[in-house]
Design goal:
Blueprint: H1 7-26, E1 48-55, E2 70-74, E3 77-78, E4 83-88, H2 92-98, E5 112-113, E6 117-122, H3 129-146, E7 152-157, H4 172-180, H5 199-206, H6 210-224, E8 225-228, E9 231-234, H7 238-274, E10 281-287, H8 299-313, E11 315-321, H9 345-348, H10 351-364, E12 370-371, H11 378-388, E13 391-397, H12 402-405, E14 412-416, E15 423-426, E16 431-432, H13 449-461, E17 472-481, E18 485-495, E19 502-504, E20 507-520, E21 525-535, H14 544-548, E22 549-558, E23 561-571, E24 577-586
Parallel strand pairs: 4-5, 6-7, 6-10, 10-11, 11-12
Antiparallel strand pairs: 1-13, 1-15, 1-16, 2-3, 2-14, 4-13, 8-9, 17-18, 18-22, 19-20, 20-21, 20-23, 23-24
């Protein structure tokens, strides 16, 4: 019987809602720069695309390549390239090298500069205490020193212990708070019997390894047999001992399955969610490894679903075995038996490699790399990956058939014509360009109008995808009042040009529903408001910037802590909507 941990569903839903919402709103709170474009390639919707990195023998990115130098094959058939672009999403180190006066590349004017979307997926269900310590240190080093100004970063975990803070954000305080929630998940399912049995050995016993089964039966005989009057008396028969060993192995594999299930289910959900976000995404997965050998759990099929979803979402996965340098001769889990007769030696061969199979497949099949057997600091690994992925080429083509449009192909190949010395790294699947879905709100005739309005606004405020039909920005200010507390003032700026003005009683005006929620760092709503605004056109004599912006303010009194403010608006006439969000930290000033 297969055991499924029910917490996986709640964690899956939490991570999905937090990730997409956070990415949506954090990007909205900054005013758009002139000429700034979305990180979505504006090509024909019939085209599909993949990103390609090209390296020389020294591992350096090869710049300056042209579209005609690339050879693209789908299922071994040549395919013409319909769209080509060289993309740069430079690391913070490159930005510092370039200096403040760096501009558009003159050597490659077709280069497109993109912001970075990064996900750190911490597999804390498969991390030892020392691995987790190194992981937290590396994350903090990246937040403090490696983040770019426009990076959107999410820190997530397979256990879901980060909770509400599993959101895309550029707020370093929120990210540090997420790291602080990463604690060791003590394994309460440890096998305490003797001799010790690792999960890998348990899998081998289930697969029918007779030698290792014999070893554990012999050990049971030592524990349950004794001499009496020159005869050996056993409290159990040899057959009963064999059954007992098999049941122990079965129980170990069954207990380990939910953790692997949770890890892969949540990772797959993240890939599907990332598909709603524009552009290319990088995932850093940190784990001590897990096993895919048990066919009954379907773990290998799950890996295939993850890599397929990643390909269509534009996600590249990089994995790191957090155990550092390890070998088959080392017992990293202290769960190998002391076998003087060598019956378990053959069953232990391949244990480390098997625990890395999932990490290898996730990286290789999405165009990333699997890092293992290295004691280099994790921060160096992150920096290396970011430097390596800072530049790439984007290729798009027109599928020949409906099957190809749906991603039904067996092989995708890209090479550089006449340059066999170059290494091409790419994903095994492609992703389609697609606009973000827009939330639609329909009037509910059978519901109380006030309640319906509140429900509609809650959908906008907590929408899983960015709502920009009405461009909306949010600014937060703190006011300290001695002896009373801290007042947070939220200023909501709404673009008038997106509103529908109607003539009523001789006056043109737009009616707008507006609402907001203050959340604490655990996702608990502390205070909220819903109101209706009547917005009037501004005379032509007013400056263009003032004409386009309508301003509304609201406030709340809050104690010290980390908070998130979310707002949403809805035009009653047109049904257009908008939303925004910001994090804010209220310092503890008591006694100062």
């Amino acid at each position: 019987m297969r055991i499924v941990n029910v917490r996986s569903l709640s964690n899956y839903l939490l991570i999905l809602s937090c990730l997409v919402f956070g990415r949506m709103v954090s990007a909205q709170t900054k005013p758009e720069k002139p000429g700034q474009q979305d990180d979505v390639v504006r090509v024909n919707t019939e085209l599909v695309q993949t990103d390609v990195m090209v390296f020389d023998k020294k591992g350096q990115f090869v710049d300056g390549l042209k579209a005609e130098q690339f050879a693209l094959k789908i299922d071994n058939q040549p395919q013409p390239i319909s769209f080509f672009e060289r993309v740069a999403s430079g690391s913070l180190r490159e930005e510092k090298k370039a200096g403040p006066n760096a501009g558009t590349s003159l050597t490659n004017p077709s280069t497109s500069n993109r912001d970075r979307t990064l996900i750190f997926f911490i597999d804390d269900l498969h991390l030892a205490p020392d691995s987790l310590v190194r992981t937290r240190k590396a994350l903090l080093e990246f937040i403090n020193q490696g983040m770019g100004e426009n990076d959107q970063v999410a820190i997530t975990s397979s256990s879901g212990q980060i909770g509400f803070l599993q959101q895309f954000t550029d707020d370093k305080v929120a990210l540090r708070s997420a790291v602080a929630r990463l604690n060791y998940r003590a394994n309460t399912k440890l096998d305490m019997d003797n001799p010790p049995m690792s999960e890998y050995i348990a899998l081998k016993i289930r697969e029918g390894d007779e030698q290792v089964l014999t070893y554990y039966v012999q050990e049971l005989q030592k524990q349950n047999c004794f001499k009496a009057g020159g005869a050996v008396i056993c409290t159990m028969s040899p057959q009963a001992m064999r059954i007992m060993v098999r049941e122990r192995a079965q129980e170990m594999v069954t207990m380990a399955a939910p953790d692997t299930d949770n890890t892969l289910i949540l990772l797959e959900g993240m890939m599907r969610t990332a598909g709603q976000l524009p552009g290319r995404k990088l995932v850093f997965m940190i784990s001590d490894g897990f096993y895919l050998n048990d066919r009954k759990t379907g773990a290998r099929d799950r890996i295939k679903k993850i890599t397929d979803a990643a390909g269509r979402a534009g996600v590249v996965i990089y994995t790191l075995d957090a155990r550092g340098i390890i070998s088959e001769s080392l017992d990293v889990t202290n769960s190998r038996p002391i076998d003087t007769e060598g019956l378990t030696i053959s069953s232990s061969i391949g244990e480390i490699t098997a625990s890395q199979d999932g990490l290898n497949a996730l990286a290789n099949d999405t165009g990333g790399r699997a890092f293992r057997n290295t004691n280099a600091p994790m921060s160096e690994w992150v920096e290396k990956v970011l430097d390596e992925t800072a530049n790439y080429y984007l290729l798009a083509w027109r599928p020949d058939s409906e099957e190809q449009k749906r991603g039904k192909f067996n092989h995708l190949e890209v090479s550089i014509i006449g340059r066999p010395d170059l290494t091409v790294r790419m994903r095994r699947a492609y992703f389609k360009t697609a606009p973000l879905p827009i939330l639609t709100i329909k009037k509910k005739a059978d519901k109380d109008p006030t309640k319906a309005r509140e429900d509609d606004l809650r959908l906008v405020i907590d929408a899983p995808v960015s709502q920009r039909q009405i461009p909306t920005d949010l600014e937060l200010r703190l006011g300290q009042v001695p002896g009373i507390g801290t007042r947070v003032t939220a200023t909501l700026q709404i673009n008038r040009e997106a509103l529908t003005f109607d003539l009523n009683d001789g006056t043109r005006a737009a009616d707008l529903d507006v609402g907001g929620i203050f959340y604490n760092d655990k996702g608990k709503p502390l205070t909220s408001f819903v109101g209706r605004l009547k917005i009037f056109p501004v005379p032509e004599s007013v400056s263009p910037s003032q004409r386009s912006r309508a301003v509304y303010e609201f406030h709340a009194w809050l104690p010290a802590g980390l908070y998130q403010v979310r707002v949403g608006v809805r035009d009653l006439k047109s049904g257009r909507i908008g939303s925004a969000m910001q994090w804010i930290t209220i310092p503890n000033l008591s006694g100062h």
